């Protein structure tokens, strides 16, 4: 669990209000340091979901997030069945990105289930968009650079 490219569904206790959430594992290193980002169905990017296409979201010429259309298959579950998010959702790159150890993550979630492993192209597109976004906290850029270097070797 918490392998790069996994979509996890869990009850998250350290957000307000605590609730079930989807999040995507972006990075995990040998010391089990993890970077994840939460999806949200709230409009936190300033663009109407109805106007968006699946993939990265641009506003004023800048990438601001990544949109998951509920009609688009993003990966496969453990039984190799196609997975689509049940609702339209977005990952805003300036909100909901967290970092910590696997132990810290496990303390803050209940009943985590890996619901999907993103298709390689989907994962790559998400990482590239996050890397290119001026809204992504600079402290995450080295992780994203490492991932991109591995992907393009």
Helical residue percent band? 10-25%
Average predicted confidence as pLDDT: 94
> What are the low-pLDDT stretches, counting only 5+ consecutive residues below 50?
none
Largest sheet: 7 strands, antiparallel
| SS field, number of helical segments | 3
What structural class do helix, strand and pairing data support?
alpha+beta
Shape: globular
Major sheet: arrangement of strands: 7-6-10-1-2-3-9
Distance between the termini: 25 Å
Please provide the count of β strands. 10
Radius of gyration based on Cα positions: 15 Å
Order of helices and strands: EEEEEEEEEHEHH
User: What portion of the residues fall into strands of 2 or more residues?
Assistant: 35-45%
Can you walk through the features of this model?
20% of the residues lie in helices and 38% in strands. It has 153 residues and is of the alpha+beta class. The strands form 2 sheets. It has a 7-stranded antiparallel sheet. The longest helix is centred in the last third of the chain and has 13 residues, at 120-132. The radius of gyration is 15 Å and the shape is globular. The mean pLDDT is 94.
List the helices and strands and how they pair.
Elements (H helix, E strand, L loop, with lengths): L5 E7 L6 E10 L4 E6 L16 E5 L2 E7 L6 E2 L5 E2 L5 E4 L4 E5 H6 L1 E10 L1 H13 L8 H11 L2
């Amino acid at each position: 669990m918490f392998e790069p490219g996994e979509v996890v569904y869990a009850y998250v206790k350290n957000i307000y209000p605590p609730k079930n959430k989807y999040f995507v594992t972006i990075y995990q290193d040998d010391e089990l340091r993890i970077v994840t980002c939460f999806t949200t169905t709230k409009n936190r990017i300033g663009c109407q979901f109805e106007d968006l296409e699946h993939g990265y979201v641009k506003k004023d010429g800048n990438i601001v997030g990544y949109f998951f259309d509920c009609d688009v298959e993003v990966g496969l579950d453990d039984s190799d069945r196609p997975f689509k998010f049940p609702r339209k959702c977005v990952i805003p790159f300036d909100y909901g990105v967290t970092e910590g150890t696997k132990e810290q993550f496990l303390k803050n979630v209940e009943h985590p289930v890996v619901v999907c492993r993103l298709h390689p192209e989907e994962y790559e597109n998400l990482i590239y968009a996050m890397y290119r976004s001026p809204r992504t906290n600079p402290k995450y850029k080295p992780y994203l650079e490492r991932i991109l270097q591995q992907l393009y070797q």
